[in-house]
Structure of MFS transporter:
Amino acid sequence: MVNRSTGSPLVLTLAGLAVFLPQALVGPLAGTLSDCCSRKMMMILADITVALMEFTLIYNDVI
């Protein structure tokens, strides 16, 4: 869709990086954190993170 709307290979590359770069950066940290914490604590932290992100989007009139 990005390539169709812009026709720019640079924008397509940046969109791809925007998708995969956070996974590459947060993945090792999340793996280490999940090894030392319980599953219940990880689920609670994930739910709190999602709630904060949704609140931020709603507060800034994105949603």
User: Anything to note?
Assistant: The chain has one domain: 2-59. Residues 2-59 form one domain. Residues 16 and 37 are 31 Å apart (CA to CA).
